[in-house]
Fold this protein.
Amino acid sequence: TNLQKWKTSEDIDLLKGLFIINKFLTPELNFVSVFSFFDRIKRNICVDINNLSPIEQVRLMNFLLFQNYNFKVNFDETELNAQTLDKAFSKRATSSFMMTVLYYLFAKKLGIPFYLVRNRNVLLLGYFSAEKALAFKGSSYPKKLNYDFFVNPSDKGFILTIEDIRISVNNEKNKLDKDFLIVTASEVINILIDKILFAAKKQNLYHYEEYFSKFKEIISIS
């Protein structure tokens, strides 16, 4: 019921969607603690982030998340705990996908103009300057934008240009599409459900398979 309400609400908040899914996995999860997590990290910032260049902003985020808070990425897709918020916050260990989502949420908390973007199976953050974004004020954003640069949170916030991506990722076995497209909150939750389903099947957690298959039906309804 909560997922249906979230899906059909006027303002679809990504963090609330993540909380609904994770609340099923960890019933004792508290929304206040989840919501305030990034505020606690933000308090460690002793400079005016608006006075920093975009690259300096990324370096500051990388320092806070990967050195100060010591976040680590677990690349084992069969590990269910790697997809949960409570393990990410308590153990500072999370999946490549969740690290990208958490990095994005922290950037939004700081007012840094990142977008979650996807090109086939490549999920990154695209930086699109606030000045350029003013042109879309009062209207919906287009599905694709010409980004200034990209950040890979699963690689400790490594900064990439579009040319870097073409060289390192785009090859004969892994051809990328022409554009990176913006990933919506509903699409993020859909990806998360798929990853939970994959891990549940690998771990023979049949009750999770049943429920998350139903969740996927709900989130896939347009």
